[in-house]
Amino acid sequence: MNVLGIETSCDDTAAAVITDGTIIKSNIVASQSDMHKKYGGIIPEIASREHFTSLIPVVNEALEQASLTYKNIDAIAVTNGPGLAGSLLIGVNSAKGLSMSWDKPLIGINHLEGHIYSAWLEDLEPDHQAGFPLVCLIASGGHTDLVVMKDHLDYKLIGKTRDDAAGEAFDKAARVLGLGFPGGPEIQKMSEEALETVAALPRPAIKDSLDFSFSGLKTALVRKAEAEGFYPVIDNNGPSRQQTTEYSFAFQEAIVDCLVRNTVKAVSENNAKGVILGGGVAANSRLRQKMNDAMDVPVFVPRPGLCTDNGAMIGAAAFFNLQNGLPFELDMDAIPNLRMGIT
Prior knowledge:
- The chain is built from 12 helices and 10 strands.
- By secondary structure, the protein is an alpha/beta fold.
- The protein folds into 2 domains: about 1-115 and about 305-325, ATPase, nucleotide binding domain (Nucleotidyltransferase, domain 5), CATH 3.30.420; about 130-300, ATPase, nucleotide binding domain (Nucleotidyltransferase, domain 5).
- The chain has a 5-stranded mixed β-sheet, with helices on both faces. A 5-stranded mixed β-sheet has the order 8-7-6-9-10, with helices on both faces.
- Helix 2 packs parallel to helix 3 (about 85-100).
- The radius of gyration is 20 Å and the shape is globular.
- It starts with a strand and ends in a 22-residue tail after the last helix.
- The model has no long low-confidence stretch (mean pLDDT about 95).
């Protein structure tokens, strides 16, 4: 089965052709990150306008790279939530138009479920390599969730962030440290130069819970920056390079330790046979390393390019959702706060 996966939940316009849920025939992403950098964050109106102009060229490129035409596509899948309302609407309505004009089945896919199923791409296949249940950590700019995957399409939410998502915390910390957007890759890069001389930042924990909380960690960084006089920036007197590298390391270590700690506990409490990491924060090399070091079960992490938003993960998730039939969901709506089908 060849599925065309379309993803426009935030600021990346993406389309991919996926065969049988695991084989990537093509995976095209048009990133808007350079456009949003000057604002220090994503401007929703700009993002949706860029999706409008980029989506059809990206779809055409995905078909061309796969050496296929629309006649070879068996179904179309599109992210219909969660995400930015305007961005989602461009993807959903464009997919509906393609479905009608090509006479192809159409299915809406939850963005978070897509991140989970990115672990089935390129022969990772956790169900075969480890088996169920699996603990899934979905960490991105908008979400930090712990989910037990009891079987295909069978999920239980066991932990979530109570305030900032991990990726959002990285973005805010990067602004304090005078770094660019998105913050996660910038902080990772700077932390690699650190000598680890500054005091550790706190590791927030919520008693008797697998939930996360990162707002206090962000505040702790702000207070340190204020005490050392480089935040807020006055007369261009920002942090020195050493301060930037040291606090980048300290902040990254705190985020990673919180994510690993709760995931280890989730594996133990649910007798999980493996761990899946998904979402943009899963591209962080320090998280990948420390998660692998801490686990005595297999850890399945897509390569970094499949952790960030992409159409391949939507096509993969769609394949497993389409096993029970090929719907024409032309009445589908974009749902910015869409919840995954969890118990």
